[in-house]
Amino acid sequence: MKALTFFIILLLFFPYSWHVDDFSLREDAFHDVSIETWYFEGISQNHSFVLMITYFVGSVTIGYYIYENCNLIKYGRKTFHEFELSSSHPMLSINENKIIEGMIENDTLVYRINFIDGDNGINVIMRNITRGWVMHDDTMWLAVPDMDMEGYVYVDGIVHEVMGRGYHDHNIFRFYSPLISRGYADGKVMLDGISFVWAKILYPLPEKFIVLSFNGTYHIIHNVSIHAKNYVFFKWHFIPSSFEVYGSDEGNEIKAEFSSISVHYIHLPLINYWRYHAAVKGYIVAGGRNHTFSSTEIMEYMRY
């Protein structure tokens, strides 16, 4: 109890101050810290997927989730104790098979993903469109917010071609995060050449922000309101079924309504996690242009 009180006081007097910067492939590589995750997401017309890699105490766990028309149809999770992680660029190899690798090809950031579990798996290439960024405080959040994605997902031996949009992020957490944090909510909108990522961090001092990417630049918006709405009882928890997001400054403005289509609940020790497929409508004003959108996106809600 004394340790918990100390960390809360520490946060109250030294609140988190996020800042956004360019990132390098080395920052997207292995850091050998408490908890480290690499997250990849792809959305195409009928199928979507998430591949998540978690490093913790000398082991790597790979979780894959394949969705059809926004509903989960196949998933699996495996833990490995023998693997190779690179500290120079994002790369995970198991039994000499490269599961993920990030590289620069023809001046473009490219990720290759290939994880096959029996008759199921994901084999895709993602090529970056907008500017990636990294945020630092006591933790790290690196994001590549909008990529062209193409390849295949395998479900019970049946091959499904996927072509659409991809997203990647890389997070570093400290072992004491569940003691001092309540969790977070985040989401994104990926358009052709313009995107934004929003987050609401549920610390004792809540923080909200939007990172807008367009024309090869990024911009962090702090004047943001994010409202969780329309709570429902799901898997023994009350959770929001929609989020309203608004932000504006320096001539940029974003407004979006995220409404749940489906919810996938994942429970891990100390963690309750909900992954939403959401119908999103709204607009972006950036660079003197107005972009309206109506799309399907994936968002997250996590509570420690």
Can you offer a commentary on this structure?
The protein is mainly β. The chain has two helices and 22 strands. The strands form two sheets. Strands 1, 2, 3, 4, 5, 6, 7, 8, 9, 10, 11, 12 and 13 form a 13-stranded antiparallel beta sheet that branches.
Instruction: Give the percentage of residues in beta strands.
Output: over 45%
Order of helices and strands: HEEEEEEEEEEEEEHEEEEEEEEE
Determine the fraction of residues in helical runs and give it as a percent range.
Answer: under 10%
**How does the major sheet shape up?**
13 strands, antiparallel
Q: What's the SSE blueprint?
A:
Layout: H1 2-13, E1 19-21, E2 35-43, E3 47-56, E4 59-68, E5 71-80, E6 84-85, E7 91-94, E8 97-105, E9 108-117, E10 120-128, E11 133-136, E12 140-155, E13 158-173, H2 177-180, E14 183-190, E15 194-201, E16 207-214, E17 217-221, E18 224-234, E19 237-249, E20 252-268, E21 271-286, E22 289-303
Antiparallel strand pairs: 1-11, 2-3, 2-13, 3-4, 4-5, 6-7, 7-8, 8-9, 9-10, 10-12, 11-12, 12-13, 14-15, 14-22, 15-16, 16-17, 18-19, 19-20, 20-21, 21-22
